[in-house]
Design brief:
mainly beta; four-stranded antiparallel beta sheet; 13 strands; about 0% helix; about 50% strand; flat
Length: about 130
């Protein structure tokens, strides 16, 4: 957001997209990013059966940490132990429990394999690298 002040008042302009980035693992843990901050919420134990479709749910939040850049995408691996944070032209893989960086690098796109630590990156339009 950008705020501009002048003699006749203040004008606030919105520039860019302000859509939240999130990912949910198979156990109902949600990682949510708004700008640089990342928070975790859990559906497990916080949702009752009498909630109707479309109803808002208030979930407790746990602050996980911050990112240097604004994340464009969050993606859990198959077990939910790790999450890939994708930025404009790079990625970071963090643990979901303590939010510790495991590895990072340059990438245009990212995809997890079915096993725990195998993933592939699109490094540039003609190069795919697989890490196992």
């Amino acid at each position: 957001k950008l705020a501009i002040g002048c003699d006749k008042g203040t004008v606030v302009l919105r520039i860019g997209k302000e859509e939240p980035v999130f990912s949910m693992d198979n156990n109902g843990k949600i990682l949510f990013s708004n700008n640089h901050e990342v928070v975790q919420m859990s559906l497990k134990g916080n949702v009752t059966a009498d909630i109707s479709d479309g109803e808002k749910i208030i979930l407790p939040q746990k602050e996980m940490g911050t990112c240097e850049n604004v994340p464009k995408r969050l993606e859990h691996n198959s077990t939910g132990q790790y999450v890939a944070v994708l930025f404009e032209d790079e990625y970071t893989i963090n643990t979901t429990l303590a939010w510790r960086a495991q590895c990072f690098g340059k990438a245009i796109d990212f995809v997890w394999a079915d096993d725990v630590k195998t993933f592939a990156i699109l490094e540039d339009p003609t190069t795919i690298k697989i890490f196992a």
